[in-house]
Design goal:
By secondary structure, the chain is α/β, with parallel strands linked by helices. Helices cover 43% and strands 14% of the residues.
């Protein structure tokens, strides 16, 4: 699996994941558990014999630190790394920093569930998954995909929703299917692409 390889990893558990807070663009660090998850992802990738030519991550520290820890475990801390807010987590707007239970008490469970799990309904002042995809996908097409197609092994450390946007395109999922897809923290998703950018092989290293 050394040709046209794209590996996606959601950052390890963050402090606000642990506290059940909406995080979005707020810049919070990893927990001790999150550090372990990121290191474990690196160990799994190294065990697969994978080496990377380039890495991409968001402008947020939890994704950047997860990437650093993975590359440390693989023994590749010197590869080029590109950081861009196009890969940031979905912006939760007015929900950012709120406890999810408190948000349900304020707006109602059904409304909060709609904001969290619909494709095109955004929370107040924030982004829907559709909005998130509208910034993630052009960056993927312009900056990441060309490198994969020319044979680079590409590692991406990002967030649940920015990665959902990529998975949706890679796996040709419907909006309904992608909002139901859970992407675990620190779990590498390995894609080998065909020359036409479709997926030849997919592996999930959750096990």
């Amino acid at each position: 699996m050394s040709d046209r390889l794209l590996v996606l990893v959601r950052h390890g558990q963050s402090d606000w994941n642990l506290k059940n807070l909406f995080t979005g663009w707020r810049d919070v660090d990893l927990t001790e558990q999150g550090i372990k998850e990121a290191r474990a992802a690196g160990v799994k990738l190294k065990a697969q014999g994978l080496r990377f030519d380039v890495a991409f991550t968001s402008a947020l520290v939890r994704a950047q630190r997860s990437l650093d820890l993975m590359l440390e475990e693989i023994g590749q801390t010197n590869i080029p790394v590109f950081k861009d807010q196009a890969l940031n987590e979905r912006d939760y707007g007015d929900l950012s920093g709120l406890n999810k239970d408190d948000a349900r008490a304020k707006w109602g469970a059904d409304q909060v569930q709609l904001w969290r799990r619909s494709y095109d309904v955004a929370p107040p002042g924030g982004e829907s998954l559709k909005d998130t995809a509208a910034r993630v996908l052009p960056y993927y097409i312009q900056d990441m995909l060309p490198r994969v197609l020319r044979g680079d092994n590409v590692l991406v450390s990002a967030h649940g929703n920015s990665l959902r946007a990529l998975v949706m395109v890679l796996e040709k999922l419907t909006p309904k299917e992608i909002v139901a897809r859970e992407i675990g923290t620190g779990v590498p998703l390995i894609y080998r692409l065909n020359a036409d950018s479709t997926v030849a092989e997919r592996r999930d290293l959750a096990a």
